[in-house]
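Issue 218. Parser rejects a valid record. Input:
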Amino acid sequence: MSADLRAQLTAAAAAGPDPFGAPTRIARFCDAAGGALAELVCDDDAAALLLAFVSQSPYLTAPLVREPARLRALALDPFLRREKDAATMRAELAAILDGAPDLAAGLRAYRNTEYLRLGARELGWGRPEEVARELAHLADVTLDGALARVHAELAARHGPPLKSDGRPCRFVVFGMGKLGGEELNFSSDIDLVYLYETDQGAAGALSLHEFFARLCERLTRAIADVTDDGFVFRVDLRLRPEGTRGPVCNSLGAAERYYESFGRPWERQAWVKARAVAPLDDLALGDEALQRLGPFIWPRTVGADVIRNVHELVARMRAEHSTERDVKLGPGGIREVEFFTQALQLVHGGRNRPLRERGTLRALDRLRTAGIVTEREHRTLADAYVFLRRVEHRLQLAEGRQTHALPPDASAEALLAKRLGFADRSAFTQALEETRHKVSEIFATLGAPASPPSPALLALVDPSATRDELAAALATLGFRNADASADEMELLRQKPHSPFSPAAGGELARVLLEEAAASPDPDLALRRLNDLVGRRGAGAGIWRLVGEHRPLARLVVTLLGTSEFLGKTLVAHPELVEQMLTAASSARVRSREEIDELVTRAQDGLDAADEEARLNALRRVRNEELLRVGLFDVGGELTPAEVSAQLSDLADATLEAALAVVAPPTFAKWGTPTASLAVLGLGKLGGRELTYSSDLDVVFVYSDEGQAEGGRAATNFEVMSRLAQRLIHALSAYLDEGRLYEIDTRLRPSGQKGALVSSLAGFRSYHAKEAALWERQALIKARTVAGDRRLGAEIERLAEAHVYEQQAPADPAAMAQEIGRLRARMEKELAQESAHKLNIKTGRGGLVDVEFLVQYLQLVHGPRRLAIRQRATADALAALAQEGVLDAEDARVLAESYAFLRRLENRLRIVHDRSIQAIPTRPAELDTLARRLGYHGDGAGERLLADYRTHTERIRARYARLLPSEQPLQDS
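Output the parser choked on:
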């Protein structure tokens, strides 16, 4: 019976839209179900569900294979064919949380179950708009459940948050974007804004802001952290007041003042969809907030600026993403439907309250009813929106990825077409193109207001302009060194095939100059443009591409005027200009697995013996990934921690791949060792805290002494030494595609005087008998980054034992004295600070203060508290506070100030293309740096410097108090 059923299912799968992949997934399910197959697939409903999953979504099939019984439960679910309301979801989640081992596990268990049900509904058992609404309600109830638990725990620990009149201080979570509009995707982030009622009051010893900041951080982690069970939803908090620079939560009064004074057009547009989503028992504060923010969101009178702002926002998004094959952001895509609708809502909603509708389809209904859009426009846009969202959902359900881009190759697009019910790819392509064309036509009726170029810009592209006229025009546009930039302009005009030459017509030159003037450092942008124009490889094709894509022009010039580091990379490799379109449309954060795949793909087809070609391929991947990370960083899309994690994963993948390249020829020449090698990362590499231009601190350890086999039959030591040398050369040598990394091996046993590689026995003996305290500090961050992982794990355990499990008990006073002595020496000899020279790393209150203080506390308390044995400084600070070793307020201040300095360090390095630690003190340079960090207006540099002094003083005060040393510290 089971064999017959299996054959029937396989035949049905082969006859479906995915005849190659679906039968394989059927086989996996049948194997997992075993003898229970007939019981699980006992009716047509269960069979239809299984066939839909295996044909449409490998992502949704995977949990069925892991737990085949889910199929039968799903077939019997009463909400398979009808919409589940939020109240039912909330009750179901409460029951799961009551029996779950912890909050995170319970939330993820419910989310995963619901995603399977909602996936089935999307594949034919429900209506798309219902599924989008249910996904939004799933987000609502998981936020509500997490909020209740986290609020109760914090209130029990610190005291309930009370206003000054003794009443509870209320709190609300706003869902923005698709969550607010109840239009959520399967792979959507949820955009959140957190508000609380007032700053007047307290929660025990905490201020209300401190209480709710902790609440928001824990709530966000409960939803967004990735565990063994996945995550609930990715959380995006960038729509809050001041974006990534602002506090995680705000009082209602503070938010109201911000939007009244600083609210920008795109923020008004974002609040059109805002909906209070938690706590579900009391959303009154949300209603009050929307009422108080109403004059900002819905002004009574608006001008043509609304339309212009919408067009600018569309242009900005397309500058940040390659959109041609993107059904969301591309021409005629989902975003054009949404923005067309929101533009008309903003124009008319101030006087016509019924138009203040959050959902796109419902808003289109209201616009038709009000006579603002015609019946044809309404029908066209509504049909297009449903169709495009259906395409988007199928793309996301296929592999569970956050994507809106059509597949890159014809066969994958043909599979998508069949999954959507089309006869073939051609029919789907025709329907898609017709839909997008109709949307674009309607979107164009909004009109894109044109503004004439300024006289100064016209003067710069006038072939007859004199040098003095060029300098005057440049000064008018905000170039600080107009004379030097005038020289650059004259050089640009003289270069053949330059977009600035008189023969080019001036249009592209005007665009590039306009973007340069708008960049953080116009003079740098123009100087680097000159370098790029004169670079071999930056021919007419690249400038034609830039000319055809105004967003690309903005992206290129903004990068050139922001980062010396990325600008040099672009000038050295002009072909990356084209890659920028792809980079800007790629994932904001890539996983290590995705980076490994890029590395593998880059080397596919290359001769295994062509070492230089394979190493050049590694350099290309690294350059492209640095550009991608840098683009998102410069655009404010990545936190310092995310930048460091991405750069560290890239370094790890590069080290592993480079080792694989150099090992075979080394062994062929010197012999195959009878030992294995592990490469350990220390310092920023070990702590996954890399910044731009970081050296890689590495240590090489091999497993056993002995004799290699074959080749020259050298000893294991000799072969491993040759391998380490060859790896260092492979990473640090300049090839056609540049250099990968500078390698630092000075943290190995005995430092520069010691052997480049150590045996495991020698490594153990050295650290047991000879290592100094600072070497124990260094080992805190030891992490295997390449080579034999099993050996690496053994070395990590050995390092941890040496750091934390010494036979003799640690003497805190002696350690404080030694660490304090080393720190004072670094400050005196390395920082050499003065009134006009400030060092963010080794100077007073700098990064090293935090790192040495944290390491001291880890060394003292780590033997008894395993949780504080963290490699990264930020993680260690959180663990020290959680374990009660460090006062929570001290930990918070140190974490905030450390993050400020790390962000400053990252920005300096991305600008200057080198490991730089000194803050510029000249006003012009300081102002430029401040703008790059997001400071605006007059006195930006002074405000940055004031913030720097505040943060470093806070750090130094805690360092001096918590690390009791008699070593003299520098005076302020």
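Fixed in the parser; the record now loads. The first strand starts at residue 162 and ends at 163.
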